[in-house]
Design a protein that fits this description.
Layout (H helix, E strand, L loop, with lengths): L1 H12 L6 H12 L4 H8 L5 H39 L16 H15 L3 E2 L5 E3 H4 L28 E3 L4 H10 L4 E10 L11 E11 L4 H16 L5 E8 L2 E10 L16 E10 L1 H6 L8 E8 H9 L12 H4 L9
Parallel strand pairs: 1-4
Antiparallel strand pairs: 2-3, 4-5, 5-9, 6-7, 7-8, 8-9
Length: about 350
């Protein structure tokens, strides 16, 4: 028995197991119901009384060392498996990373800008925090116009003649362009605007606009109509038709709302166009002489037209988006639908 205890002690001290399976096999071999150490304890019953003390101490020490060694090997094997899992199996096929896509509002903006650049328009930009003069007064808004009310406009400062506010339209950029640029002027003004409106499927307190301005000698309403028709056909397809309905804007006279033939039903009537066959896309008109004079332009010599459209509105019509709030929720499922969209 002494020789067997010594051999098992040497075996325990030299144990090396790399996997959980090998550790478990060694545990069963040594400490299982029929393990070698377990059998020694059964044989210990027949040992002479005078030798029980000596062999009992050696057997207990052997079992203690074997148990500790097995636990040590088990922990080492688990650590190896965890490390390998965190490092990853290099033999496994790679997982493709999903590429992002541009936001639909950005795509629509780029398409609109690209179309008007073809027609010779430059791009002008201005501050989002503006003063009352450039947003309202220079655009022929009377002092008591409801758009000046705090229920419609986010004011940054009040209490003085020219308060600061978050611009409600990018027409303020047109005013700054007329003040600084040489004639003739042909620009579009894309940008973000803010209005104090309740958020719903059709309205939001933040949205994006593209406004256009053309001033030169002899500009007529016919030029305006042709520019909008060319844009509509570039944006919605060569078969697109437009119609212009009389409207009112303080900074244009005459003014009109522009509809395009529905690009879904092609004018026959559907739920998108509410059975009318037409979709509203923008407002426009001839620049009011008061607006020209406010910017130092001789209204008797020069004339011009202006137009403005909501980028979200154009994107909704182009891709049949039914809720304006989708643009601001950052839902990847929605945004991935535009990964294949390309510029016109």
């Amino acid at each position: 028995m002494r020789e067997r205890i010594e051999k098992l002690t040497e075996l325990v001290n030299s144990l090396k197991c790399k996997t959980d399976k090998e550790v478990e096999e060694m545990r069963v071999r040594l400490l299982g119901k029929k393990g070698e150490i377990t059998l020694l304890f059964e044989e210990f019953r027949s040992v002479a009384p005078e030798l029980k003390r000596e062999f009992g101490q050696k057997l207990n020490l052997l079992k203690k060392d074997a148990t500790a060694k097995i636990e040590e090997l088990k922990a080492a094997a688990a650590s190896t498996v965890k490390g390998a899992a965190s490092a990853g199996d290099v033999t496994m096929p790679g997982e493709p990373h999903q590429l992002g896509s541009r936001h639909p509002v950005s795509i629509a903006r780029e398409q609109i800008v690209k179309i008007f650049r073809k027609f010779g328009y430059d791009v002008a930009e201005g501050p989002e925090v503006e003063d009352d003069y450039h947003v309202f007064e220079a655009l022929n808004f009377p002092p008591n116009h409801p758009a000046r009310d705090m229920q419609d406009t986010f004011f940054v400062s009040t209490g003085h003649p020219n308060p600061l506010l978050l611009r409600t339209h990018t027409s303020s950029v047109q005013v700054r362009t007329m003040e600084k640029s040489k004639l003739p002027i042909r620009v579009i003004c894309p940008g973000r605007v803010f209005r104090n409106e309740a958020i719903s499927a059709r309205a939001h307190c933040i949205f994006h606009q593209v406004e256009g301005l053309y001033i030169d000698e002899g500009v007529t309403f016919a030029d305006l109509k042709q520019a909008i028709l060319l844009f509509a056909r570039e944006m919605f397809g060569p078969e697109t038709k437009i119609r212009m309905r009389p409207s009112y804007f303080p900074f244009t006279e005459p003014s009109a709302e522009v509809d395009v033939s529905c690009n879904i039903c092609h004018g026959e009537g559907c739920n998108i166009c509410k059975g009318t066959g037409w979709l509203e896309i923008m407002g426009c008109g001839m620049v009011d002489p008061n607006v020209l004079e406010a910017s130092g332009i001789d209204s008797k010599k020069y004339s011009g037209f202006a137009f403005g459209m909501g980028i979200e509105r154009i994107a909704m019509l182009k891709w049949q988006v039914n809720d304006l709030r989708h643009y601001f929720e950052n839902d990847l499922r929605f945004l991935r639908e535009f990964s294949t969209c390309v510029d016109v």
